[in-house]
Amino acid sequence: MEQITDLRIRRTHRLLADALIALMQEKAFEKITVIEICAQAMVHRATFYKYFEDKYQLLDYCVHEIGTRFIENAGKKSAGADCRECFLNMARGILTEFEAHKDTYITILKRDAGYYLTHKMQDMVNYELTVQFERICDEDGNIGIPPHALAHFYSGACINIMYWWVDNGLSVEEVMKYMENILNL
Description:
Blueprint: H1 2-24, H2 34-41, H3 45-51, H4 55-77, H5 83-100, H6 102-110, H7 114-140, H8 147-168, H9 172-184
């Protein structure tokens, strides 16, 4: 019975998150009400409050889910022989995930929640890169830069290139080629 309950809860969370994203395509987050989210999701308001304190907690859930998908996709590809390869694999994974759900992510990035999403994603990317860079340092010895500092540098580049990519409408392969060229400078 626990498995069924868990599936129901996950389904309810997904319905509410999808409703919020759909509403954010129409208007600013600040103007969206819990009643509108519930109507869009076809979920009773009491059910909403059973799982979330307010719409901000739902937004946090949405951003966490998005960030988790980015990292899961990128993390599978981020292992590399060196820091450069590790970063390029992480960036490709993030851009590939972004491209698969582009409309949703653009909606969030272009609305009030964009800063929150990018900040949370940068923290997650930074963590994953730090883990990878520490592994590389353990295998190859000291690279002359603290892994955490290097991860901050690369995670910032990763998030900012994503914004640039959205604004310029390029393919993932074009962006990756530019990134490789930049790293070769």
